[in-house]
Design a protein that fits this description.
524 residues; mainly alpha; Growth Hormone, Chain: A
C-alpha cells in the first residue's frame, strides 16, 4: 500500500515538530529559573569576607610589628627588603603564633554552633541564624578599623577582638542557616541545582571582594577596605530583614524529642502549610534548647553507627572519611600561611595576591556551574570517579608549586586545583544515595562537625607546619595537602566497587521479583 503526502501536509508536520522542539527547549530553560531569596545575602556576606581576606593579614603583620615588637612604621612597611630579613622572620613567627592561638580560641564557639545551631533554627527560624553571622562579620571588621586607627596606642592583644565574629557563629552558622533555608523552600528534584547556585555565588562573590580589595587598598588604604566591608554587611542585614521571608512557621519549632522517639515530621517543600500530624509533632518543647540539641547530636551519631544492609554502612563510613580529608584539605589552603608563602617565595604584593585569589575562585565557579553538570548529568560519570579525577588534578596542582621556584607554577597549580570543590559535592551525593531520605539531615549534621573542627584546629595545624618548615622547605604544607587527597583515591575506588555490587544486587532482586510474579500469574 502506497501513502502519498502532499507538500502542505509535510510542511504542517515539520511545523508541528518545530513547535514541539521549541516547547521542549523552552521548558528546559524554564527549569533554570528560580526565585531569588537568600542569594543576595550570601553575595554581600562573602564580598565582605573577600575584602577583608588579604588586608586583614596585612593588618595583623603591621600591628604585631609595631605594637608587639616595637619596630617603626617605616621598617614594618619594608619587611620585604634584604636589610630586614631577620625582622621579617621575627614578625612571621609572631603572626604564626597569633593565628594558631586564635584558631584554638575560635574552636569552642564554632563547635557549639555546629552542634546546636541547626536545632535552634528549627525552633526559632532561619533568618535569625543567618543574620547573626552578618552582625559578627560587621563587628569584626569594626575591630580591624579600631586596631589600625590605634595601631600603636592599643596593645596588640586587641586583635583578639575579632573573636566577636566567632561568638556570632561565623561561617558555621550562616551556612547551616542558608542551606536549611534553601531546603525549606525548594522542591526535591531542584535541590542540587539550587545548592549549586548558592555555592557558586559564594565563591564568585568572595572572588569579587578579594579582587577589588587590592585597588581599594591602593587608593584608599585600610579605612576604605574595612569601611566597604562594613557597608556590605549592613546592606546584607537590611536586605535580610526586609527582603527575605521566613521559611518556617515560627511558633511551631520542630519537636526534637518526639522526632527522636521515631515520629516523622512530613514537610511540604516550598510550603509553610502544617498538616494536623505536623501540628502535633511540632509543638514547642518545655526543655531548654541545649538539651534538645544534645538529644539531636546523639541521634545523629546513632544514625551513623546503626546497623545497615551490607555494604551501605561501609560506604557511609568511607564517605565520612573522604569528606573529612576534603574539608581538611580545603581549610589547609586558607589562612595567612598561604599569603606568607606567596610573599616569602615570590615577593608578591597585596595586589598580586588578590588577583591570584580572584582567578582561582572564578575557576571554582566554573567547576561548580559548568564542569559538574557536564560530568554528572550529560556524561553520567559516577560520583566516585569524578572525585578521583578531581583529586588527581588537585594533587598535581599542589605538588607543582612546592617543587618549583617560579610563581607561574603557583598560578598554574591553582588553576589545576579548580576541580577540588567537586570532591565535597560528590561525597554528599554518595552519602545521600546510601541512607534513607529521613536520615540525610542527621548525616549532614555529622559532616558539619568536621567543618567546624577543620576551620579551627586544622587551619592552626597548617599554620604551625608552615612556620616550622618556612626556612627549609616552605612548600611542605602543599605536599601535606596532596597527601590528604591521595588517601581518598583508593577509598573512592572501594566506594565505586561497593556501589556496583549494590546495583547488581538490586538488579538480581528485581529479576527475582519479576520471575516470582510470572510464576504466580501462570498458576492462575
Amino acid at each position: 500500500m502506497n501513502f502519498h503526502f502532499s507538500n502542505s501536509t509535510f510542511q504542517n508536520y515539520l511545523f508541528c515538530e518545530m513547535v514541539k522542539s521549541t516547547q521542549t527547549i523552552w521548558q528546559r530553560i524554564q527549569r533554570l529559573w528560580f526565585p531569588v531569596t537568600v542569594e543576595p545575602v550570601i553575595f554581600l556576606y562573602a564580598v565582605s569576607l573577600g575584602l577583608n581576606e588579604v588586608i586583614r593579614s596585612n593588618l595583623i603583620i603591621q600591628k604585631l610589628c609595631q605594637s608587639k615588637l616595637n619596630y617603626t612604621e617605616e621598617i614594618c612597611d619594608d619587611l620585604g627588603s634584604q636589610n630586614n630579613t631577620q625582622i621579617a622572620e621575627e614578625v612571621r613567627l609572631n603572626v604564626t603564633e597569633y593565628e594558631t592561638l586564635y584558631g584554638g580560641l575560635a574552636f569552642l564557639p564554632r563547635i557549639l554552633y555546629g552542634l546546636m545551631a541547626g536545632t535552634w533554627s528549627d525552633r526559632n527560624g532561619r533568618k535569625k541564624l543567618i543574620g547573626l553571622p552578618l552582625l559578627g562579620q560587621l563587628l569584626a571588621t569594626l575591630t580591624y578599623l579600631l586596631n589600625y586607627f590605634f595601631i600603636s596606642q592599643l596593645p596588640w592583644q586587641t586583635l583578639y577582638l575579632e573573636l566577636l565574629n566567632d561568638s556570632c557563629g561565623t561561617y558555621v552558622a550562616i551556612y547551616i542557616g542558608l542551606y536549611s533555608y534553601i531546603t525549606d523552600i525548594t522542591e526535591e528534584d531542584a535541590m542540587s541545582f539550587r545548592l549549586g547556585i548558592l555555592d557558586g555565588a559564594d565563591y564568585t562573590s568572595t572572588a569579587v571582594g578579594t579582587l577589588i580589595s587590592g585597588p581599594i587598598f591602593l587608593y584608599g588604604g585600610y579605612y576604605a577596605v574595612f569601611g566597604s566591608g562594613m557597608l556590605s554587611c549592613v546592606l546584607g542585614i537590611i536586605y535580610l530583614t526586609f527582603g527575605v521571608k521566613e521559611s518556617l512557621n515560627i511558633g511551631h519549632g520542630v519537636n526534637v524529642e518526639t522526632e527522636l522517639q521515631g515520629s516523622e515530621v512530613h514537610r511540604n517543600y516550598g510550603s509553610q502549610t502544617i498538616s494536623p500530624i505536623q501540628e502535633e509533632n511540632m509543638k514547642p518543647l518545655d526543655r531548654p534548647v541545649y538539651i534538645t540539641s544534645i538529644l539531636y547530636i546523639f541521634e545523629s551519631l546513632k544514625t551513623v553507627l546503626k546497623s545497615r544492609k551490607y555494604p551501605r554502612k561501609t560506604i557511609l563510613f568511607l564517605g565520612i572519611f573522604n569528606f573529612a580529608c576534603y574539608i581538611f584539605t580545603y581549610n589547609g589552603t586558607e589562612g595567612t600561611h598561604r599569603y606568607a608563602y606567596a610573599r616569602m617565595k615570590y615577593g608578591w604584593s597585596e595586589q598580586e595576591f588578590t588577583r591570584y585569589l580572584f582567578n582561582y575562585r572564578i575557576g571554582y565557579m566554573v567547576a561548580l556551574w559548568v564542569v559538574s553538570p557536564i560530568l554528572s548529568r550529560i556524561l553520567n560519570i559516577p560520583d566516585p570517579v569524578i572525585s578521583i579525577m578531581a583529586c588527581c588534578s588537585s594533587i598535581i596542582g599542589f605538588i607543582l608549586p612546592a617543587v618549583t621556584q617560579s610563581s607561574t607554577w603557583f598560578t598554574v597549580g591553582s588553576f589545576i586545583c579548580m576541580f577540588s570543590p567537586l570532591t565535597t559535592i560528590m561525597t554528599r551525593a554518595v552519602l545521600s544515595k546510601t541512607v534513607p531520605g529521613d536520615e540525610i539531615g542527621r548525616i549532614f549534621s555529622v559532616l558539619s562537625l568536621f567543618s567546624a573542627i577543620s576551620g579551627s584546629l586544622v587551619e592552626s595545624v597548617f599554620q604551625s607546619v608552615f612556620g616550622a618548615t618556612a626556612d627549609t622547605f616552605p612548600g611542605a604544607y602543599l605536599l601535606l595537602l596532596a597527601g590528604l587527597l591521595g588517601l581518598t583515591i583508593p577509598v573512592n575506588l572501594m566506594i565505586l566497587l561497593f556501589f556496583r555490587r549494590m546495583e547488581k544486587s538490586n538488579l538480581q532482586q528485581e529479576e527475582t521479583q519479576i520471575s516470582t510474579g510470572d510464576a504466580i500469574f501462570q498458576n492462575f
